[in-house]
Amino acid sequence: MIRVLFVCIGNSCRSPMAEGFANYYGSHLLEASSAGIRPASIIQPETIQVMQESGIDISQQRSKGLQAMKLDWMDWVIVLEASLAGTLRLPSRKTRQLNWFVADPIGRSIDVYRSVRDELQVKVLDFIERVRQED
């Protein structure tokens, strides 16, 4: 199994969505987690709602901090926040990093959450296809 970690600021919107999509669509190929550099301690209700609209239940996910993750176990780290680019110290050369700069929907309308969800769904599906081809 390929291990992938999605990272953003609060681990309450973008990275939980990406984790949900990756585990839903890529369960046969990868194991996804998510974390934030300053975890919000909750997954935003709007995040859960828009994912349920897509048929994916992430209500059992929890907001986690990056320090709680074992980066040396990860094959991929995918950064969703532009301000974090270049700030993560990857523990080994085997861990690869991608930067997907996706707008943070926190405090915005439900339509913005939907737009972010749709963007992440496309990116995650493309990533799964990339991993499948490399496998």
The percent range for helix content is 25-40%
The SSE string, one letter per element, is: EHEHEEH
Coarse morphology = globular
Mean pLDDT: 93
Overall SS class: alpha/beta
Strand content: 15-25%
CATH class: Alpha Beta
Gyration radius, in Å: 14 Å
The biggest beta sheet reads:
4 strands, parallel
Strand order of the largest sheet: 2-1-3-4
Low-pLDDT windows of residues: none
Predict the CATH topology: Rossmann fold
Distance separating the two termini: 10 Å
What is the CATH H-level superfamily?
A: Response regulator
H/I helix tally:
3
Query: What is the architecture at the second tier of CATH?
Result: 3-Layer(aba) Sandwich
Instruction: Tell me the total number of β-strands.
Output: 4
For the record, the count of structural domains works out to: 1
Structural write-up:
- The structure is a single chain.
- This protein is 34% helix and 16% strand.
- The longest helix has 25 residues, at 110-134.
- With 135 residues, the protein is an alpha/beta fold.
- It is built from 3 helices and 4 strands.
- The chain has one domain (2-134): 3-Layer(aba) Sandwich (Rossmann fold).
- Strands 2-1-3-4 form a 4-stranded parallel beta sheet, covered by helices on one side.
- Helix 2 (45-53) crosses helix 3.
- Strand 1 (2-8), helix 1 (14-25) and strand 2 form a beta-alpha-beta unit.
